[in-house]
Amino acid sequence: MKALNAIRIAGQEVLPIIEGGKGVAISNGLSSGSWAASGGIGTFSGVNADSYDNGGKPIPQIYSGRTRRERHEELVRYAIDGGIEQARIAHETRGNQGRLHINILWEMGGAERVLTGVLDKCRDLVHGVTCGAGMPYRLAEIAASYRTHYYPIISSARAFRALWKRAYHKFAEFLGGVVYEDPWLAGGHNGLSNSEDSREPEDPYPRVVALRKVMNEAGLHDTPIIMAGGVWWLSEWDHWLDNPEVGPVAFQFGTRPLLTKESPISEDWKNRLVKLKQGDVHLHKFSPTGFYSSAVQNAFLNELQDRSDRQIPFTAEEVGAHDTPLSIGARKGVVYVTAEDRACAENWLSQGFTETLKTPDSTLIFVTTQKAEEIRADQSACMGCLSACSFSNWSQGKTGSTGRKADPRSFCIQKTLQNIAHDGNIEEELMFAGHNAYRFGRDPWYRNGFVPSVKQLVERIITGS
């Protein structure tokens, strides 16, 4: 492998390796601070991060507000307090080495308020802000107001061009780098566009070359591109180093830091990682954000798929082939379906899926009474964790609603991510992972239950293989 030279990011020479910022409580102050202490850039999550009691235990995020708006305010306060605490832990852990970033999802509820609330208290502890999940036009202005560098996460040259033309060109001084996140390989939420096929992965190299061309046109020749998604061994990216088509480049690791001593995920989750097989991580579109996301195929995803499969279109009156009546609900209201779909419905009803829930797309799904009660309870308990949620129809705008019916085919993402982050059942919760996670099981380094420290992992990564 070519020599791995330090790179200048945010005014300091660091190793060109970055810990990717995972979501709710998964990248914390200890894991990110340890990564920075090893000479790279650590990234802690600013997405509803944990705060701790005097005994060092995470404070449960319990909501007492009577309305969604009141619960949303509680959520924002939890997020700010947790972000401040994790920033301080990360700063103390890094020992004045490396750099620290905070990761924010633009589509999370109260994103701007959370970011400014953390930076108000921690501007001297945080060296950069990474931000994805949407088009964060205001990111540059906010970061620049704190004289902090910003790192947008994008998945195409076109997305960056739009951000640059509309807003970022005004704050070029603080653009520390551009994160290219491969939408087919990265874990968590992915930036696939409607014109791209989720089943046909594209080679990241030409997409990154196209991004570099756009950046060069804007005079950003020296601004690094950070490759994220599918990065395991740097030797596999040797042709990217010292390559004028790519330009200055660094590499982000999101999945590999999960399996370290400092990682806060549960032992069950860590044990599951080393047992994954190729193909066990799937792209799906059940997220209430509307984005694709990559997660381990488990009972949680299987239930969502089965729920969606038990679905038929309906009309309120006889229309065309929808000429067969079907009684639904406790009041036995009548809708009209096709004769073929009526047969499917009767089969599902006989299997115990006796509750019907309407979707925003004029379809019915069939679930058990227990699942219907769970869905309704989760929708009712919404705390506004997203700027707009398809599952609960919450919107942080003035009306408090997306204007569409709540969608029972989705799920409460805050609930499941909080659960799995705090020792929840890994089969019954959403477990994000990158598509290369199966490589844990193929790497002899992890045999016999070995779990490295962050320092050991960084040392292994920089050897290249």
Description of the structure:
By secondary structure, the chain is of the alpha/beta class. The chain has two domains: 7-279 and 440-462, Aldolase class I (TIM Barrel); 299-421, no CATH class. 31% of the residues lie in helices and 17% in strands. The chain has 13 helices and 18 strands. The strands form five sheets. It has an eight-stranded parallel sheet with strand order 3-11-10-8-7-6-5-4. It has a three-stranded antiparallel sheet with strand order 9-13-12, with no helix packed on it. A three-stranded antiparallel sheet has the order 14-18-17. Helix 5 links the parallel strand 7 and strand 8. Helix 5 (157-166) runs parallel beside helix 6. The longest helix has 27 residues, at 68-94. The protein is globular, with a radius of gyration of 23 Å. The relative contact order is 0.13.
A few lines on this structure:
The chain is an alpha/beta fold and 465 residues long. Helix content is 31%, strand content 17%.
Write the layout of secondary structure elements.
Layout: E1 7-9, E2 12-14, E3 17-19, H1 29-37, E4 41-45, H2 68-94, E5 99-105, H3 111-122, E6 128-132, H4 139-145, E7 149-154, H5 157-166, E8 178-181, E9 188-190, H6 204-217, E10 225-228, E11 249-253, H7 267-273, E12 281-284, E13 292-296, H8 299-309, E14 311-313, E15 324-328, E16 333-337, H9 339-350, E17 355-358, E18 363-367, H10 369-380, H11 413-421, H12 439-442, H13 454-462
Parallel strand pairs: 3-11, 4-5, 5-6, 6-7, 7-8, 8-10, 10-11
Antiparallel strand pairs: 1-2, 9-13, 12-13, 14-18, 15-16, 17-18
